[in-house]
Specification:
The structure is a single chain. The chain is an alpha+beta fold. The chain has 2 helices and 6 strands, in the order αβαβββββ. It has a 4-stranded antiparallel β-sheet, covered by helices on one side. The termini are far apart.
């Protein structure tokens, strides 16, 4: 569904899109955080059409992925508070 034009169209996408979980994982990789010590939340707000140039930004626990003024993904990473 995501990577081929013929399978993207029936799902309402005029062209292929990046898989949402891949974009989410890529954002987490940018943070370089120990995955066993955090809680992660994400909200997918718009698909990323391919090809595309996107920008990753983070401030404190919050992060987002956008292209121009369009936000594709927002999220937070917070400590799991190990004892």
């Amino acid at each position: 569904m995501h990577l081929h034009p013929l399978t993207a169209r029936p799902f309402g996408h005029p062209r292929p899109i990046a898989h949402g979980m891949w974009t989410f994982a890529r954002c987490l990789a940018e943070r370089n955080t120990d995955p066993q010590g955090v809680y992660v939340r994400a909200a997918f707000t718009a698909p990323v059409p391919l090809p595309a140039t996107v920008t990753y930004a983070a401030s404190g626990p919050a992060f987002q992925l956008r292209s121009g003024d369009r936000v594709h993904l927002t999220g937070t990473v917070t400590s799991a508070g190990r004892p």
